[in-house]
Amino acid sequence: MQSRTPGTSGTPAPRPGRPRSAAADAAILAATRQALVELGWSKLSMGDVASRAGVAKTTLYRRWTGKNELVVDAVAELFDELRLPDRGSLTADIEGVVLQFAAILARPEARSGLMAVVAESTRDDALRERIRDSIVDRQKRLVLEGRSRAQSRGELPPESDPAESARTVDLIFDVVAGAVVHRTLVSAEPADEVWVRDFTRLLLGGLPAAATP
Amino acid sequence: MQSRTPGTSGTPAPRPGRPRSAAADAAILAATRQALVELGWSKLSMGDVASRAGVAKTTLYRRWTGKNELVVDAVAELFDELRLPDRGSLTADIEGVVLQFAAILARPEARSGLMAVVAESTRDDALRERIRDSIVDRQKRLVLEGRSRAQSRGELPPESDPAESARTVDLIFDVVAGAVVHRTLVSAEPADEVWVRDFTRLLLGGLPAAATP
Amino acid sequence: MQSRTPGTSGTPAPRPGRPRSAAADAAILAATRQALVELGWSKLSMGDVASRAGVAKTTLYRRWTGKNELVVDAVAELFDELRLPDRGSLTADIEGVVLQFAAILARPEARSGLMAVVAESTRDDALRERIRDSIVDRQKRLVLEGRSRAQSRGELPPESDPAESARTVDLIFDVVAGAVVHRTLVSAEPADEVWVRDFTRLLLGGLPAAATP
Amino acid sequence: MQSRTPGTSGTPAPRPGRPRSAAADAAILAATRQALVELGWSKLSMGDVASRAGVAKTTLYRRWTGKNELVVDAVAELFDELRLPDRGSLTADIEGVVLQFAAILARPEARSGLMAVVAESTRDDALRERIRDSIVDRQKRLVLEGRSRAQSRGELPPESDPAESARTVDLIFDVVAGAVVHRTLVSAEPADEVWVRDFTRLLLGGLPAAATP
DNA sequence: GGTTAACCGAGACGGTACGTCCGGTCTTAAG
DNA sequence: CTTAAGACCGGACGTACCGTCTCGGTTAACC
């Protein structure tokens, strides 16, 4: 939820003059998601979002530099709902979180927005950075959390080489996120329980081999 | 490479009037790729492509309904370069084709265009169909070819259940394509030989488990 | 009815090859007038006229250089209907022909077309020439005929100075044509019998003064 | 000079938001006249006028509904220069104002524009109304002023019947305006002093007869 | 009775302008 | 200094015609 004047995390540092409306931020992001549902990314316009939010266009541009940044923030909030459930086994935990991920990608505001900003980010490094910070890296916590939980259950051995370990986390993340996105958006087939079961088998079956240096 | 009036595969059935210029098609698709490289998808405009190709805007609209369809055809040609190399083993074959795939995704005309049209396709069924026909399904041949070659080498058992087999092909395709795309475009890390080796280990290691019903 | 290859008035000078369809000419001019009625000059398009006439666009351009020339020919035929009636007195004759002229200008194909080509002719000398030859000068016969008839009746004296006489004919023509057109198209009031009676009084009352050198 | 939102004559009633630029109006009308001179009505384009005026196309369309309305306003300003000179006699006054009128019609921006909008007005009642209000009726003041001045000089009797009088004013206006326009644009001969002298003789000679009921 | 040359329909072609929409910026008055 | 409102410049959109061209095929007059 970074804005043009990035959120000074600590004290608000009260500037002179009229302070910005806090309600406006929420209204704008909600309006953006609504517009994504109804229109999709390419037909979503700043003016339309502004009038949906009951706000002037200038108010948008004071907070975000453009459509891309706005959509990143609007979509990022969706992925913060992801939780790693404790279902008792690594297999079940993975299946649970993948199903949650698939459920989010089934929502039109996520489908429309996510791929569009990724596409834009191929030519805009600042945007890619923002996507990484706001969306991608924030969800790596799930992989880390899942691994440590499996280790405490004894399903996985404690990692030895930290560099090796980081590489494996990244690989898993690319495989999970990539496969679900591809299944959902490109193949346009549902990532349902059957598919998730098969996929999880593949992933867990391959893990030991991948972890070998 | 479908146009607005899809190619009647058999006899050309010479319609009355001046026939469409074949040279124009090639010039337009090349100009589109060039524009993708220089400008990216969102700043690519039909007028610009037309003038690069030395063609009138109407000539574009006579052949494609819009920017999305045009870009799909322009990008599709890139992926037809993919070949399954014969490197002697299943592992090596997979590594080879994945590296080729990664090399295509490293080209800016593919990066820019591919994700954008996928994003648009989330709200346009005809476009998704076109992407599937022109790009995705056409490359599944690689998976099929690789499997039959491995079977003839004795690396894989002949499939028994055809439905089960089709499901596995789809799964592999989603995993391979998804992981490489995610690594390349979202994580923005190179899918180099090291990564491909790790990924291939994961995939081949998990295959037996995934193939179990 | 001049065409691009202007009508060699005498012998048709039979060129080799297939001769032009005579029926097409009539159909095109009729279609032009119909289009003028329904669409007006500015929304009339060559393609539309062609399809109304059941003819290809090339056939139009083979005969006329453009829209303006075509419309001039189509409108010119309307004014050839004008006849000088013999109502027994100069006053009555003038009133009769002025009413006929007003009736033609009340038809939408004449209103729309005439002023438009005159407007265009302000920047196109060839077009002005064509208008003069096809429309304007051809109707001066009415003034000449009216005068000689009045002279034979003894209502007007025979002219003495030929130059002076020509100047008067031109003046009368400008006054009559100009006044009726202005009344009809600019003031947008009908040039009815009452108005024509008043106008004719003014004209005939002023004639002796104007004819004095 | 009416705009899309006609000038509320009284208080400006300050609407919210940025007010319209007054300078833009003048620049646009001047650019329109310049374009009429260089290109004529049919080759004048809104985009060209906009760029000449240093203004966006949207700014034109915010103020005028189309080319016709814009040209009417641009041309109307030309005719507001007309003044009734006091040359001591009715004859001389008329000759003076007719020469002025002819001088305006000799300017290419007037020739091109005036007839074109009159032609268009044959199919557009709102446009005809606009022409009447902005150009035609505004100049009838000249006829009225000339008559009252002639009456005060004793050259004309005071009018008795007001309806009769109004009809005569309209008739004179149609004759004067029509004849000068026809002489200038259709006959394409100059309305010079000789012609104006002859025409004025005709007009004044006929007036007594026309004024008789 | 074949040759031949101009005709004809259809429709694609390179252009130009259209009138609209949107992106971002700016200028107001109000808070 | 922020806000709502809305005008501003610029650029792209997709469409409509322009006048030209390139086809396959027809039609009359000459040989």
UniProtKB/TrEMBL annotation, chains A, B, C, D:
Residues 45-64 bind DNA. One of its GO terms (molecular function) is transcription cis-regulatory region binding. Residues 1-22 are annotated as: Disordered. InterPro entries: Homeodomain-like_sf, HTH-type_TetR-like_transc_reg, HTH_TetR, Tet_transcr_reg_TetR-rel_C_sf, TetR_C. It comes from Streptomyces roseirectus. It comes from the Bacteria. Pfam families: TetR_C_11 (PF16859), TetR_N (PF00440). Keywords: DNA-binding, Transcription, Transcription regulation. This is TetR/AcrR family transcriptional regulator. Residues 22-82 form the HTH tetR-type domain. Coiled coil: none annotated. Residues 1-12 have a biased composition (Low complexity). PROSITE patterns: HTH_TETR_2. The keyword Transcription regulation applies.
